[in-house]
Write a sequence for this structure.
């Protein structure tokens, strides 16, 4: 129980608001069935949602057992795996990790954007914060390489009883493969400008066919229900033994500015949200993924895990993110 509170999610902490929590929390499932089905139609994609009350374990889901591409959502379990390596004595939070230009990955990377020279050292804790808080692809790939690869993250999840989440490739590998191009192994330096030109030059039919396959790929994918179970274990302190490590990760994923128009936009004023987003490219009018998972603490003391995955949507970004907000608003309203 001490570890549970030490995670600093403000989950089930001893506060007056907790006293107002209903003794038998539940969801208005019929209402959610109807409202989320309507939201899915508006989203123009395949929408997966799971809700799990962290006090009474009452749950609800829509396509909850279906598999969805994670995109950057994987960086949250990755951060846990890195912190487990610290607790095992394999790494230290303040140890310097050397990154060179050859270690850059594709797409979003504040680290690469601010990089100077040919080589820089970063404290491990900074790389964790960049990956889990700012969704930095370079930081994430180098952290995953440092602990032994994607399979280490998946094994951690399996050992923790989570069978519906699979982390299989580095960002530099799977991002090109989503559209049928060759991924970058560690023996290849990422040339993002050349890659984008190659992607643009690819025949639209080939891109679309590859994306259709990627949307069904069980690799680097998760089910909404498994995601809420992972979050529940995180809130309970099951993944990390050291309260300081749990508090550090909580700070990172609570203070992130990522996805302000997704789940967070559907929560009431004063709600606390610790989360990780994920998003893929839109090509030929189809978006690979727009995701958000996290733990919500409401002003009345109710706490629940929420996972929303939207795959293959033909809607614009504003509409996709509005679907997240609408689901979150419906989830809060359906509590009883």
């Amino acid at each position: 129980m001490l570890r549970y509170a030490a995670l600093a999610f403000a989950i089930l902490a001893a506060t007056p608001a907790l006293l107002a929590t209903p003794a038998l929390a539940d969801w208005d499932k019929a209402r959610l069935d109807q409202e989320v089905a309507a939201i899915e139609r508006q989203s123009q994609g395949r929408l997966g949602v799971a809700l799990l009350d962290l006090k009474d374990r009452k749950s609800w889901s829509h396509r909850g057992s279906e598999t969805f591409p994670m995109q950057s959502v994987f960086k949250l379990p990755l951060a846990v795996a890195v912190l487990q390596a610290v607790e095992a004595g394999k790494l230290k939070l303040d140890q310097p990790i050397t990154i060179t230009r050859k270690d850059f990955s594709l797409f979003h990377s504040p680290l690469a954007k601010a990089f100077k020279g040919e080589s820089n050292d970063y404290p491990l804790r900074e790389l964790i914060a960049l990956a889990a808080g700012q969704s930095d692809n370079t930081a994430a790939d180098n952290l995953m390489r440092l602990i032994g690869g994607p399979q280490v993250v998946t094994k951690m999840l399996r050992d923790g009883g989570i069978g519906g989440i699979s982390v299989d490739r580095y960002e530099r590998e799977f991002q090109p493969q989503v559209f049928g191009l060759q991924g970058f192994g560690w023996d290849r330096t990422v040339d993002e400008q050349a890659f984008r030109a190659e992607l643009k030059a690819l025949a639209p039919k080939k891109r679309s066919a590859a994306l259709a396959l990627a949307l069904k790929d069980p690799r680097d994918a998760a089910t909404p229900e498994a995601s809420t179970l992972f979050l529940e274990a995180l809130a309970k302190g099951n993944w990390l033994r050291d309260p300081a490590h749990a508090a550090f990760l909580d700070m990172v994923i609570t203070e992130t500015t990522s996805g302000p128009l997704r789940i967070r936009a559907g929560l009431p004023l004063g709600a606390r949200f610790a989360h990780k987003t994920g998003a893929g490219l839109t090509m030929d009018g189809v978006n690979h993924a727009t995701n958000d998972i996290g733990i919500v603490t409401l002003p009345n003391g109710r706490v629940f895990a929420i996972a929303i995955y939207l795959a293959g949507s033909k809607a614009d970004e504003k509409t996709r993110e509005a679907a997240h907000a609408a689901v979150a608003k419906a989830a809060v309203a359906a509590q009883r």
The first strand starts at residue 46 and ends at 53. The two ends are 25 Å apart (CA to CA).
